[in-house]
Predict the structure of D-malate dehydrogenase [decarboxylating].
Amino acid sequence: MRTHKIAAIPGDGIGQEVIPAGLAVLRALTERAGDFRLDVTEFPWGSDYYRANGRMMPEDGLDQLKRFDAIYFGAVGDPHLPDDLTLWGLRLAICQGFDQFANIRPTRVLPGLESPLRGLAPGAIDWVIVRENSEGEYAGHGGRAHRGHAIEVATETSIFTRAGVERIMRAAFAIAASRPRKLLTVVTKSNAQRHGMVFWDEVAAKVAEDFPEVRWEKELVDAMAARMVRKPAGIDTVVATNLHADILSDLAGALAGSLGVAPTANLDPTRQYPSMFEPIHGSAFDIMGQGVANPIATFWTACMMLEHLGEGAGARRLMRAIEAATAQGVLTADLGGTARMDDVTEAVIAAIRGDNAPD
Ligand code: NAD
Ligand code: MN
């Protein structure tokens, strides 16, 4: 039987609720599928680990993770610790250490869910946003001088390398090529940002030569935000920088109904290292411990993980079960429902067990 080794890192807050729910759903799925298994190891890393050990994960954490086929991640963030410490100490340490340069964010309005956009036709939002995940505006370059003085100055420099832009562009064109509409929108701000963003447009044009089947277009990020609201049906695959895609994908998540359903994958497409799969949302201290977190984003990212592991049939079966649960109206409070997390989990598990489709 095919076996995949999974490292599960629930992390903080509702991460400790939604990851166990995701693992329960995956257990039901592997039982139902019968042709593959997941060998799961849980790691208790995060803010509690920090309080006990002075670090978010052990010094050899990345070495421990290297031997896994994928990482299933909850969230980090603790009300009593600085966000940059928790984020850089665990989540970003993994993204950067494993060169997970492609952050993939699918967006769809699931059956039974309502977009805040009025009169949206079913299927009008079916997007994949590809976010550059390793450089750009979040490269951490910059500094401050003359602190506290009238002449104080702070800089925040974006870094774009040819290798970095080319590899994210290739990943985005490949995704666009794999989708029915074969349309890629390259988002920049090349009218105002004349160096890095003009460079993005140039690299896009060059990479496009290798993907003649893909139609591609350029769009400025501000216009793109408006277009996502005004003409969502004309959008398919989108590639943008770390900052631009960060903002656009939160907008996308909201347009799909809630951040609680938005999944993401941090991929190393070269497969040298394990990729990491997580919900987009954070640790949500405001609702932690109440059993009301929406687990759908965590289930959906498990579909992405299965796809990445070559278990396409399992991924489709899980997606059908998620959609069956949402279509039945088993919805948590963020989606206007009254269901608790366990109700959603049980509905998805029941749908998996009752699924008689051939694959
Ligand atoms: P958040 O995503 O945790 O929460 C934002 C709002 O959405 C909250 O009102 C929350 O209750 C709600 N929400 C989020 N996920 C939900 C779910 N699954 N079901 C129902 N409601 C949900 O963002 P925040 O409040 O800005 O940040 C809280 C902490 O999480 C901070 O420490 C932040 O740094 C961290 N954070 C971590 C990640 C990550 O680990 N990838 C991402 C974002 C924020
Ligand atoms: Mn964000």
